[in-house]
Design goal:
Elements lengths: L10 E5 L17 E5 L3 H7 L2 H6 L2 H9 L11 H16 L2 E6 L2 E6 L5 E2 L14 E5 L4 E5 L4 H17 L6 H9 E4 L5 H10 L3 H14 L2 E2 L2 E4 L8 E5 L4 H4 L4
Antiparallel strand pairs: 1-2, 3-4, 5-9, 6-7, 7-8, 10-11
Length: about 250
């Protein structure tokens, strides 16, 4: 009997926008790179899994299946997850992504999406997910972090719990701030952070902080310029729609 033929799947190395600088040195993600395999029919099954789609976890399940590197998926910050997602789409179905926007079919070349790299000088310390900022309207010094997948899941669980108590509750913004802020005026106790967000954080400072985080956090520029066929005004920085159809229009 002949030996069973073994197939070796081709892989690609994806560079993370964080350059690995937000992960501890002993974390494999600190290399700033991650190895991924090409999508197969097995991964396509994930895309059509109705249970995953209903739970809103289908893209996470897909990317976990494609990652070859030994790492904890929950450690990934959102910007690095976006880099993996774009790479997954290119490796699976190519670089051209077509979708409808304002009644017009648009095709975006995903290989031209630019990473927004982290700036090491913005960090409090290398290989530590910590940044410093002074709230502009109250001069309150704080430190904060970029949320990772574990944080996002914790926020989602808290929101669900709050809505069970009060269906009209909409606490997402404050809960996200409580997860992001690490210290207030040097006090890093969770009690101090929660009390500050609930009672003392001005709306103006909250907005300024969120804008600052958007400016410095590593990510992928998932926007495009829209040029109407009827000669209308060009729209810049339009968000690329991302969902199951990002990978498979028929899913």
């Amino acid at each position: 009997m002949s030996e069973e033929k073994k197939f070796k799947f081709p892989t690609e190395i994806v560079e993370l926008p964080s350059k690995g600088l937000l992960y501890p040195k002993d974390n494999p993600l600190s290399s700033g790179k991650i190895e991924m395999k090409y999508m197969t029919a097995k991964e396509e099954d994930i895309l059509t899994n109705q249970n995953y789609i209903r739970q809103g976890i289908v893209l996470d399940k897909l990317m976990q299946a494609l990652i070859v590197s030994k790492c904890n998926y929950d450690d990934l910050i959102v910007g690095d997850k976006n880099a993996i997602m774009v790479a997954s789409r290119i490796l699976g179905y190519g670089k051209d992504y077509s979708f409808e926007y304002e009644g017009q079919e648009v095709t975006v070349d995903l290989s031209e999406i630019e990473p927004k790299w982290i700036k090491e000088e913005d960090l409090v310390e290398k290989n530590t997910n910590e940044f410093s900022y002074t709230l502009p309207h109250t001069d309150t010094p704080i430190t904060f972090k970029i949320l990772n997948n574990k944080d996002e899941k914790a926020i989602e669980a808290e929101i669900k719990g709050a809505k069970k108590i009060n269906k009209m509750a909409s606490p997402e913004l404050s809960m996200r701030l409580k997860q992001m802020i690490l210290s207030v005026s040097g006090d890093d106790s969770r009690k101090a952070v929660r009390e500050f967000v609930d009672n003392y954080l001005l709306a103006r400072d909250s907005r300024a902080l969120r804008e600052h985080i958007r400016e410095i956090q590593p990510d992928m520029d998932l926007t495009f310029d829209f040029y109407p066929e009827d000669g209308g005004e060009t729209q810049e920085d339009v968000k690329i729609p991302v969902g199951v159809t990002f990978f498979w229009p028929d899913a």
